[in-house]
Amino acid sequence: MQADKINALPGQPEGVGFDQYAGYVTVDPVADRALFYYFVESPVDPSKKPLVLWLNGGPGCSSFGYGAMQELGPFRVNSDGETLYRNEYAWNNVANVIFLESPAGVGFSYSKNSSDYTSVGDRKTAQDSYIFLINWLERFPQYKTRDFYITGESYAGHYVPQLAYYILARNKNTTQTVINLKGIAIGNAWVDDVACTKGLFDFLWTHALNSDETNEGINKYCNFASEDSLTKKADADDNPIQCGKYQKQGLLELGDINLYGIYAPPCYTSALKSGSTGNVKNYDPCAEYYVNSYLNLAKVQAALHTKATNWSGCSDVGWTDSPTTILPEIRHLAREIRVWKYRRQGEDVSLEWALKKLNQFSADRIILKVKRYLWTMYYYVSIFNNYLRIDIII
Fold first, then answer.
1. What span, in angstroms and rounded, lies between the C-alpha atoms of 307 and 31?
2. Higher pLDDT, 379 or 186
3. Pairing of strands 120-121, 75-77
4. How many CB atoms lie within 10 A of CB 119?
5. Which InterPro entries does its entry note (predicted)?
6. pLDDT tens for residues 342-361?
7. What is the pTM assigned to this prediction?
């Protein structure tokens, strides 16, 4: 534990009142496969706060580079690529948060067996993440009985439910630590190929990001019915070649617009030179470039206790195992733990279709309690108000 403690990250602001740790946890000693983590404790009463694991998606994208450094972590990177400023809305204000780079090959995580980079998938990722947690809790035993939550976004709609499902199964038959899993939360999550693809292209068309011609082609040639559909009838003629053609056209029509924030400006070279404001309330579309520069500094990697690595936000891992739907796992989890899904307006609504499908999955329906809260997107405060949709599955 103490060997992983970070005295201070290079360029961090003064007055940091919480402990932070980083390093590797071995998940396969034979292959020398190890996963990198970054852990931040809460600045106030960390012993009374829950433990949260955050996972980004991809698959193959870094929970540290995106989740910690651009979204919910305690710091953001300035435009100089060398200094940090505080994120006043960081999740470690209310919890102790682990950011895990998984699977091996993503970010700083590595394996000495090259096949681990070319043959990986959901099942292996869940197993490695579970082993990581068991070994991490041995390193931080004070968290063994702490309330534990798994959270994430995008393809973590696969990671989070599958890891939770695996934990619950192992908890019932293990001589190792029983993980005190209380719930999961997934944002803008990809949980069902059919429902999420339909939701994505419906979103693009209803927000004037796709042409009528493209939308008509998708609805005509793409079969969005699945084996789990109650009707078991196709919505349109099933023509995979034409369907693929129109879907590709739909993504091309999106252009430089950020699918995860369609009202956000793109990053231009001039913006890179102009510099950030050092204020988390002012959205910076170039933040990804600042993070890439920062995490490739030798002094930063030394502070994080990593191997010398050419770090990148997303890696080209060979994905061989990706179920078409995770809804059965979510349905099972909802019987045992709390399940929370969320998205905001301005992001694609593919998850909406998946939750509708979940509620129709069988006669044994899950009750969805939906609450809507009016909120304001902090970096567009002068433009429009927004809604955050929260669906609690009980």
1. 16
2. 186
3. unpaired
4. 14
5. AB_hydrolase_fold, Peptidase_S10, Ser_caboxypep_ser_AS
6. 765 555 555 555 556 555 54
7. 0.87
